[in-house]
Amino acid sequence: MAKLGVNVDHVATLRQARGGSEPDPIAAAAIAELAGADGITIHLREDRRHIQDRDLKIMRQTVQTKLNLEMAATDEMIAIALAVKPECCTLVPEKRAELTTEGGLDVRIHQEALKVAIEKLQAGGIIVSLFIDPDPDQIKVANKIGADYIEIHTGSFADAPTWKEEEQELIKIENTVKLARKLDLGVNAGHGLNYTNVKKVAAIGGIEEFNIGHSIMSRAILVGLDRAVRDMSELVRYS
Ligand code: PXP
Fold first, then answer.
1. Residues with CB under 6 A from ligand 1
2. Which of 90, 148, 151, 210 has a CA between 20 and 30 Å from the CA of residue 111?
3. CA of 167 to the centre of ligand 1 (A)
């Protein structure tokens, strides 16, 4: 039965739009947990465009389930993670000009630096996940450099323009899950998943946790966060 990690970055985006204190992602994380979220995910970006250092510090004290910190593998972020100690760090690529994380890490090209980052974080007792495209070569390198988990980037599946291409992307995800499980890597998945397409990915089986943000927050504006989290939680668990 898969778990649901709720990404609350968009709550912080709304707060930053006015530069004030509401809505507070701390409150959103608490409501998400009360509605059944298995974990809370936040991305502390280098440019601090949504989540702030204050959010991370307070959530470390208030999150009762599991805190997953998405971050670039920079010295600054590694030092912050080691000081705050989230249960898990998901390493992601980061470009200043992007609207959201646009692709998986190129683990092959950056393997030396990633290996060092993984070792430092693991030495601090943090589980490390690498956000990567469903590509067998990337999974093999992720395993070689000691990652605990991979998070499969499901963006190409979610954005597939035709049914046929969606099907092809789904097959890639399925093959990635099989390979990762064979290598004994834990598997999470996320990006672009919504109340319709998540069922197809959840049906594959073998994915431990789905990290979902935008679709949950979009629905929350209309029906409330509690209901939005409960509905998604049901889909990832039972489809
Ligand atoms: N996983 C990772 C690594 C991400 O960077 C994001 C986007 O912040 C997500 C999951 C969630 O994506 P979405 O907001 O499209 O659900």
1. 7, 9, 43, 70, 90, 92, 100-101, 131, 151, 190-193, 211-215
2. 210
3. 21
Q: How far apart are CA 32 and CA 67, in angstroms?
A: 12
Q: Which residue has the tokens 């935008």?
A: 214
Cβ proximity of 128 and 151 under 8 Å: no
Residue whose CB lies within 8 A of the most ligand 1 atoms, among 13, 44, 77, 101, for a mutation test: 101
Three-state secondary-structure class, residue 85: coil
First to last CA, the chain: 9
pLDDT in 10s for each residue of the chain, 239 residues:
899 999 999 999 999 999 999 999 999 999 999 999 999 999 999 999 999 999 999 999 999 999 999 999 999 999 999 999 999 999 999 876 666 666 899 999 999 999 999 999 999 999 999 999 999 999 999 999 999 999 999 999 999 999 999 999 999 999 999 999 999 999 999 999 999 999 999 999 999 999 999 999 999 999 999 999 999 999 999 76
CA distance 69 to 42: 5
CA angle 57, 88, 40 (to 5 degrees): 60
The CATH number of the domain holding residue 59 is 3.20.20.70
Instruction: Please tell me the pTM assigned to this model.
Output: 0.96
And the tokens for 235? 């889909």
As a whole number of angstroms, the distance between CA 221 and CA 72 comes to: 29
Its domain, for residue 51, covers 3-238
